[in-house]
From TrEMBL:
Pathway: Amino-acid biosynthesis; L-histidine biosynthesis; L-histidine from 5-phospho-alpha-D-ribose 1-diphosphate: step 6/9. One of its GO terms (molecular function) is imidazoleglycerol-phosphate dehydratase activity. SUPFAM superfamilies: Ribosomal protein S5 domain 2-like. It comes from Halorussus aquaticus. This is Imidazoleglycerol-phosphate dehydratase. Belongs to the imidazoleglycerol-phosphate dehydratase family. One of its GO terms (cellular component) is cytoplasm.
Length: 195
């Protein structure tokens, strides 16, 4: 298998970001965004997806968490798209549900090259720590747009911490499944011959 890694930087007037990603990693993560709960979610994403991930972000947190979360998602999406290359041999589709106590989240993903995002549910509290809850949804949308994913996400529960964490874990598990190499396939999983 070829090396499925990427290193991507993004610098704007709002954020300065460095991301490295190894799709075939061990789940190791080093994350520093300045948003504690978001760091925890990215570490969980790496652990449960078995991705090696480093994220460093210097963002305009004096305003709020929006630009930091959004731009990290954009950069991570770019890194995932780059690491997967032509997507030759990947499984492509996956569907995962993950519970966390009373909460459950589901993710259905197609690594299609065609960005689309659908979301069903609501977060039970407006924020968790220093992260605004709706930014979890925005993270998934921005990731899907920049990685070229068709992504359907659902959440339900009573505690936003549990709902968001279940979402990040189910996203990780679904992406791990969808990006695995199918030993029976030597081409791209599409009748078009391209993803």
């Amino acid at each position: 298998m070829s090396d499925r890694t990427a290193a991507v930087t993004r610098e704007t007037a709002e954020t300065d970001i460095e991301v490295t990603l190894d799709v075939d990693g061990d789940g190791d993560a080093t994350v520093e965004t300045g948003v504690g709960f978001f760091d925890h979610m990215l570490e969980s994403f790496a652990k449960h997806g078995l991705f090696d991930l480093t994220v460093r972000c210097d963002g305009d947190l004096e305003i709020d968490d929006h630009h930091t979360v959004e731009d990290v998602a954009i950069t991570l999406g770019d890194a995932l798209e780059e690491a997967l290359g032509d997507k030759r041999g990947i499984v492509r589709f996956a569907d995962r549900k993950v519970p966390l106590d009373e909460a459950v989240a589901g993710v259905v993903v197609d690594v299609s090259g065609r960005p689309l995002f659908e979301f069903d549910g609501e977060f039970s509290q407006a924020s968790v720590g220093d992260m605004t809850s709706h930014m979890a949804k925005h993270f998934a949308r921005s990731l899907a747009t920049n990685a070229g994913l068709t992504l359907h996400v659902s959440v339900e529960g009573e505690n936003a911490h549990h709902e968001i964490e279940a979402m990040f874990k189910s996203l990780a598990r679904a992406l791990d499944d969808a990006t695995r190499i199918d030993d029976r396939r030597s081409d791209v999983a599409s009748t078009k011959g391209k993803l």
